[in-house]
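Consider the following input, taken from an annotated entry for Squalene cyclase C-terminal domain-containing protein (Streptomyces dysideae).
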Amino acid sequence: MNVRRSAAVLAATTVIGMATPAAAADSSPSASPSVELPSGLYGTTDPTYDGVWRQSLALLAQDSVGVRPAAKAVFWLTGQQCANGAFAAYRADTAKACDAKLMVDTNSTAAAVQALAALRRHNAATDKALAALAGYDAVTDKAVAWLKSVQNRDGGWGYAPGGASDTNSTSVVIGALAAVGEKPAEAVRDGKSPYDALLKLALPCDDGGGAFAYQPDEKGKLAANADATAAGVLGALGTGLVVKAGKSEGAVCADPGTPEQAAANGAAYLTKAVAKDGHLTSALAGADDRPDYGNTADTVIALAAQGGTAAAQKPLKWLEQNAVTWAEQSGPAAYAQLILAAHAAGTDPRDFGGTDLVKQLNAQGPAPLTATAVPEKDEEEDEEEDKDGGVSIWWFIGLNVVGAIGIGFLVRFGRN
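Applying the prediction step yields:
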């Protein structure tokens, strides 16, 4: 699940099941936009194809290290939602209602759900006023309902509604369902769950090394794809983009008859893929064997989720030595990917090869309310605060937001 600036361009071909997986992994910086960007948005490059995606990853990465984002960063994301619950890659004019010409997609929607669900878990306990103002539940409930409404008959999802199921899209939706407390296996259409769709996209050990394909090609043939495999491991494990280290001992390829085995197979494939150089190689045409930084970061997350922190150390060390310059050139989603990789692999993202990734990400957008980790309260502490009549700092900030941008916006959040 790399930086997705080209994903929307591919959606038209995805609809007929012929998208090129490599193109979806393009992480080259886009040109600077010709119009002024919203102050709540992370990054300074053209957000047309990745605005919601990069904002969601930035908020997820901040949340994973205990940083509380600026209120306007949250409101920018919630304001991107359409009335039917879906998100597009970017809506420049949220006052204009979404129409049939707007290309909404499962990836942007599922990423937004994961980010807002994570914020809700923490803000509902520590910052109740913002949680109420931001309306996390209303946004994620509508988004999940829309995702379920566009589930394919094979149990999976494509990038665009109606598109053939692919590993990346199915996996990021699984992560969204898990993030809101649902069981992905129970999201069934025509008797098929998302795991059924993933297993159909898993290659056998003797023909593909246990990798996942992105989609079948026009002849129905599956081809191993590292980007899809990293996503597929997380999907098969039923987890989202923020992971806890797994406990499996090694990754041995066997018949992918279950999601758990398919995840192990995918991890075995990725382990072999990075064994020589510590990184994946770009599959883009004309890349001339250049390293694929984004997919290598995704590989670290997948290996850690499946086999624990030790399994991810080789590509992690390579990223620490080589990926910071890439992140500087690529922007907030790249910094977020590295933070999520460091988090998954048990290393400090504030000292990642000598670089404070968290500080660098925070500088990509509106200054967060807290730039350092905030200790989380447990439920007993939260209940005690209620009894004492405690008032969160978010309440005062919420009042200021109301005064600054108006009650009407907070009620609607631009969801047209």
